Amino acid sequence: MEQRFLTPAETVQAIVISGRRVVTQSRFRTAVLSLLAGFYIAFGSQLATVVTQDAATTAGVGISRLLGGSVFSMGLVLVVICGAELFTGNSLLVKSALHGEIPWGKLGENWLIVIIGNLAGSLFFAWLMFRSQLWQGGELAQHAIAIAAAKCRLPFEAALVRGVLCNWLVCLAVFMATAARDVTGKVLACYIPIMTFVASGFEHSVANMYFIPTGLMLAAELHLNEPGLTWGKFFLGNLLPVTIGNIVGGVVFVAFAYWYIHLKGTRPSK
Q: Does domain 8-262 have CATH number 3.40.30.10?
């Protein structure tokens, strides 16, 4: 009987081999793929905003979070199935570097290009949603602003810890999607951990690159002075600690952990 998914050891090997792309892939290709990932995560983010705008008052907070997480997972599904470079998922490249398949300098270069590309894609998508005038005025705009303001008000430590917990789950989703051998399996692998992190209230750096600028644009349009909602708080109060947390969560609890379990002491493949 044909094996329907990769074992954990086989999955680790597949991720390590996939990481070799950073050596041969051009910077331009990486930049384009990172822009696409920014768009894809923003698609899921805007849909989660729409779905949850009044769900808490009608179905309860828990169900609202479940619905938001369910539709938000579409973003990672697009990244995995269609192919894109997502900064949080690229924490798994550390496996390839630890195993000697790629130089650490190439890893750093990839992370830099990808996080800039993700940010550019997210900002452009936020601008597109703003220009669409779908959200101007009404409860949806107020909901989007409230999401952004709540994220900017998080204490540094809380944002960092929520970032750790978030990317622990995101990288497990990518790990399981790599193990799956068909599209259905990959979709389910993405759905369960991503729904869990959103419903739990954890923080994803690339999603916040969309959520917070959208709230800032809408607040400016409506001439609202929302306390704590500023570009400075976005970059230094939220994005910085969440990004650090995302790196720690993905690198320590998934990339390093599974490299240590399955590959430590073995030789790189030729």
A: no
